[in-house]
């Protein structure tokens, strides 16, 4: 599992131009998953990571090298 930049994920979620429901739809994850990751209650898995990429998050921002 790659190491993800949680701060960048939070920034991306906060700056999303639509609703969290729309972000969840575009990313293919549940709205609950977005809130859980955003609030530090859950670690982002591969489905979540791939979803953020599908929603437009830049790979170089998402993954820690």
Major sheet size, sense and barrel closure: none
Q: Kindly provide the radius of gyration, computed on alpha-carbon positions and rounded to a whole number of angstroms.
A: 10 Å
User: Distance N terminus to C terminus?
Assistant: 12 Å
Beta fraction: under 5%
**Domain module tally:** 1
* Net shape: globular
- Strand runs, count: 0
Structural class by sheet pairing and helices: mainly alpha
Helix content: 55-70%
Rounded mean pLDDT score: 92
The CATH topology corresponds to 434 Repressor (Amino-terminal Domain)
Q: Which blocks of ≥5 consecutive residues have pLDDT under 50?
A: none
At CATH's second level, what is the architecture?
Orthogonal Bundle
Order of helices and strands: HHHHH
Q: How many H/I helical runs?
A: 5
Report the top-level CATH class: Mainly Alpha
Describe it for me?
The chain is mainly α and 65 residues long. It has one domain (6-62): 434 Repressor (Amino-terminal Domain). 60% of the residues lie in helices and 0% in strands. It has five helices and no strands. The chain has helices at residues 6-15, 20-27, 31-38, 46-54, 59-62. The model has no long low-confidence stretch (mean pLDDT 92).
Write the layout of secondary structure elements.
Elements: H1 6-15, H2 20-27, H3 31-38, H4 46-54, H5 59-62
